[in-house]
Amino acid sequence: MRRLGIDVQPGEYAVARLAPDAPFPADLLSGSGASLVSLTRTPTELSVVCPADLAPETADAEAGWRLLTVRGPLEFTLTGIIAALSSELAAAGVALFSLSTFDTDHILVKADDLDRAVAALRESGHEVDAP
């Protein structure tokens, strides 16, 4: 795996679940773009990833996540990025939640595991900028 640049984003995130027919939370869609917000609808849920203080009150939410972003943009032809990062974190005993966007990949780890995650990624040769 090539060396990746990874940035630890400020603030705490939440991963939340709403009913599959719930409307998209309008307040999350009108933000400035300063933070990651992801809304994904499937036949069984509306999944939300957002800053913890913006998590919908009616959602089944789990807060306490920290966001790590791979510096991009990444070419669509690149393979194995999430596989490599998840293997490196798994070897360190760090659980993750991943998602991808057009430009790059993102990994969320529990806040309590952040230091261990950063250390594992650095030991694997990645450049990690953490505040």
Question: Quick recap of the structure?
Answer:
It comes from Amycolatopsis minnesotensis. With 131 residues, the chain is of the alpha+beta class.
General description of the model:
The protein has a single domain (5-126), classed as VC0802-like (2-Layer Sandwich). 19% of the residues lie in helices and 34% in strands. It has helices at residues 26-29, 81-91, 114-123; strands at 5-8, 13-18, 38-41, 46-51, 60-70, 97-100, 105-110, 127-129. This is ACT domain-containing protein. InterPro entries: A9CJY8-like_N, ACT-like_dom_sf, CASTOR_ACT_dom, CASTOR_mTORC1, UCP008459. Residues 11-57 form the A9CJY8-like N-terminal domain.
**Order of helical and strand elements:** EEHEEEHEEHE
Q: What is the number of domains?
A: 1
| Radius of gyration over all CA atoms, rounded | 15 Å
Gross CATH architecture: 2-Layer Sandwich
Main beta sheet: 8 strands, mixed
Q: On the 0-100 scale, what is the average pLDDT?
A: 94
Q: What class, by secondary structure content?
A: alpha+beta
Distance between the termini: 25 Å
Shape estimate: globular
What is the CATH level 1 assignment?
A: Alpha Beta
CATH topology: VC0802-like
Flag low-confidence runs: none
Number of helices: 3
Beta-strand content: 25-35%
Question: Any idea what the CATH superfamily is called?
Answer: VC0802-like
InterPro entries: A9CJY8-like_N, ACT-like_dom_sf, CASTOR_ACT_dom, CASTOR_mTORC1, UCP008459
Domain A9CJY8-like N-terminal: 11-57
Organism: Amycolatopsis minnesotensis
Protein name: ACT domain-containing protein
